[in-house]
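Supplementary notes for students who missed Thursday's class. We covered one full example, reproduced here. Read the sequence, then the structure, then the short commentary at the end.
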Amino acid sequence: MEKAIATKGLSKEYSGVFRVKDLDLQIRQGEVYGFLGPNGAGKSTTMKMILGLVRPTRGSVELFGQRLTEKSRIDILRQTGSLIESPAYYGHLTGMENMRIIQKLMDLPEKNIRKALSIVRLDNQRNKKVKYYSLGMKQRLGIAMALARFPKLLVLDEPTNGLDPAGIEEIRELICSLPAQYGMTVMISSHILSEIDRMATAAGIINKGELVFQGSMEELRAKSSHSIVMRVRSREKAAGLLSDYSPKMTPEGELAFEHVSDDAVARINSRLVENGIPVFRIEERRKSLEEIFLDLTGKAAAL
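Structure (token representation):
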């Protein structure tokens, strides 16, 4: 499938320190691509380079197979819409008046701005001054501005930041609907894995400016290795009896076995019972996506 975004060796250096280093992003058309990383990992800087707002120190950006250069930038960006960091608006104007400014700047038909406001569910609030909008309404107005030209690519930088649960759900539903209804590719950044898990079809994880994972959400979930945990009496004796299965002791004093089959679990249980060691509990545990994220980015990273 054709790539909506492809970067090669994309890097940005500030004051001798690389904030983004050698990123090779591959985002296919029609995907909702979750761009994850701790705060300060380089997500916003990367998105700004993709949109031509920040000049890379080295590396290249291609959008829809066309390299982003000073000469090609305007034509390429006509196919994109974006909301970076926070929406820009005039608080003393209404939502519709703000959209008319976008209409004039982009030379868009009337139907575009009305449709964009409808998509983000601001039809009934379009004549209200933006300074009286809630935070969620302001975010939706920002997304409507990004949607106004109905771009092939939509780039959203933490669009659910600061929203209440109802607002987050609205934005999530909107983003999930865009590829199927309008043929858009969506790149969305976040530092909250659970949000991306419910929206994205693919993900890239960045840490300290470097890409530590890229692939489908299924591939990310596959990193969730499972283990069998047993609570037994006389765990030291049990561990000795089961040394051929390489048991590990959990902080809670349980025995953990990694990569064991159902047949092996049955044999382990039988051996314990035959040797007079009661088994109180057997359970399967998998790493959560949050734990995978912490493994990839370092457990000390701030989420």
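Commentary. The longest helix spans residues 165-182. The longest strand covers residues 3-14. If anything here is unclear, bring it to office hours.
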